[in-house]
Amino acid sequence: MQAWVVPGYTETRELGSGGSGRVVLAVHEGTGIPVAVKYLSDRLRSDPAFVREFRGEARLLGALHSPYVVGLYEYVEAPDGAAIVMELVDGIALRELLKQSGRTGPEAALVVLKGSLLGLAAAHRAGVVHRDYKPENVLVAADGSSKLVDFGIAAGRDTTPGVAGTPAYMAPEQWQGRPASPAADVYAATATFFECLTGRKPYGGGNFAELALQHIEAPVPDAEAPEPVRSLIRRGLAKRPEERPENAEAFVAELESIACAAYGPDWEERGQRKLAALAALLPLLFPSAAGTPASTTAFATTSLWAPGRRGWLGAGVALVLGALLIFTQASATDRVGEPTELSAFATTSAAPPGTGPTGSAAPSGSPSGSPSSSASASPSAAASASASPSASSSPTTTPGAPATPTPATPTPTGKPPTMPPASPAVTVKAVRVSSFRQTGFTAAQVTLAVDASGPATVRLEWFSSSSPGTLGAAEGSTTFSSATAANTRTLTFAGQGCYWHVRATTTPPASSGAATAYLTISRCQIR
After folding, report:
1. Comparing C-alpha atoms, which of 140, 147, 192, 148 is closest to residue 166?
2. What whole-number distance in Å separates Cα of residue 56 and Cα of residue 59?
3. Which tens digits make up the pLDDT trace of 455-506?
4. Tell me: the pLDDT tens digits for 50-77?
5. What is the pTM for the complete model shown?
6. Who contacts 14 (Cβ-Cβ below 8 Å, separation ≥6)?
7. How far apart are CA 221 and CA 230, in angstroms?
8. Which of 37, 334, 364, 463 could serve as a FRET partner for 84 with CA atoms 20 to 30 Å apart?
9. Among 8-22, 222-236, 419-433, which is the least confidently predicted range?
């Protein structure tokens, strides 16, 4: 029997598969935008707990808006299947880089840690704890940038969802099923940082019980790391959560201070170049390649396990029993966890950088921006939105288009998102750049404010140069419809200048003229 396909998409090839489902590369038929679609397996789709968990994953993704976290388009749940439609990250898992090179070097490891922490920081600000940070869940793009994926077992801060995670990266308190906290994510990110530096995991127990005791009691192996970053290892792998940075954002501040002092102001640029070079050694693993499919997200069947005692010794005893009862078929690198019950919801959905604003997303058969609907639950590995199958009407979001209301039945039109032309009666008083900041080595975020009597067409252009007084080389442009509300876009730069510029114009022209702004990028700032 032919597998169910999300309406409005054409599958290109499979990117990976596992116990919980599969991820495919697909193209939205109306716009031609490539996406990653994560399908929940038929076996798990019949389990209400797993359906709730994947809805929860989509809900969490929809609440996160960060260039360091994979973006969500929509969550689709239908009688024949469930899927999460996500931003396609043309990158490879950090795990593959480590398999190829063994280690990355300190500057590249710091770049991975910083990008990961910034992604975790977005989750922590939203009250979400990832709980399964590991090299498999970090995707490295061709330019050396990275994104965090797979929020499949994420939980709300201070909730107690049970023992879950990947044993090699689980914080001591995770082994005991204590409340989820950002400090546990900091621990897992530091364990991955250690692996990038040394080529091995911090602790190498041969079974779950031994691994648990090492994470709980063994000394932090910071002496194996380069001396300048040992303090980061000690802080991030501290046994007690209160001895670690309280969240990812606080850890980033410590990292930047230490990295600059140890490796100079250009450490990030050099580290990102090193990651790009490592990724270039594995061209066939990129989703855009036509070679052998390679998974861009980790799959693992979530197991149920709740320790009967909470003490340090009790955790070790419970682990031994748990290993005998539950983990006989698992290795020390398998993910273990417990389904988290989440209620139905309508999600917000992230559009691809530079293509459109963020809107609400719900069951939909097409991200074309035209009315459509569908009831379905789906797995997500990169970007998607989700909603309860009981919802009879909810908004839908198209890659690159604002959200629009949807009817109760799927009616994908296949039409690309279009922008309404400005009415001749519209007058624009002013357009201004209310915010312009660098968010990554090659990325910036700009927010525009348009004071107009109705919808106007906005043209945004961005440039790079070696002088704050000249626009310099054109880097890109986009056109979109806007009203009086603020409009935020993520821009990508390739130029080598120290100054990034933006220019915004409107149709009809604003009486105040064009709006321009510039910033000095971080690698050129005096420190």
Report:
1. 192
2. 5
3. 888 899 999 998 888 888 899 998 888 765 557 888 988 866 888 999 999 8
4. 888 888 788 878 778 888 988 888 888 8
5. 0.59
6. 22, 23, 24, 25, 293
7. 9
8. 334
9. 419-433
Instruction: Say how far apart CA 176 and CA 306 lie, in whole Å.
Output: 8
Give every CB contact of residue 462 below 8 A, 6+ residues apart in sequence: 444, 446, 474, 475, 476, 477, 491, 493, 500, 501, 502, 503
| Whole-angstrom distance, CA of residue 477 vs CA of residue 489 | 11
- C-alpha distance across the termini of the chain, in Å: 62
The H-or-E segment that residue 78 falls in is strand 72-78
How far are the Cα atoms of 55, 307, 377 from residue 83, in angstroms, in the given order?
A: 10, 32, 6
Active site residues: 132
156, two tokens? 């709300």
Closest residue by Cα to residue 131 from 162, 90, 100: 162
Domains and CATH numbers, the chain: 9-89+338-405 (3.30.200.20), 93-215+225-285 (1.10.510.10), 428-524 (2.60.40.1930)
Q: Say how far residue 229 (Cα) sits from the centre of its chain.
A: 26
Inter-CA distances, 485 with 358, 417, 440, 448, Å: 13, 20, 25, 8
Give the separation between CA 57 and CA 71, rounded to whole angstroms: 12
* pLDDT tens-digit series, residues 294-339: 433 333 333 333 343 334 444 443 343 333 333 333 334 445 543 3
Residue 53 token pair: 């968990």
Please compute, for residue 480, the number of CA atoms within 13 A of its CA located in the half-sphere on the CB side: 20
Instruction: Write out the two tokens for 480.
Output: 């979109």
Q: Report the percentage of the chain scoring pLDDT > 90.
A: 26
The pair of three-digit structure tokens given for residue 88, joined into one six-digit string: 């396609």
Which pair of tokens denotes residue 76?
């689709």
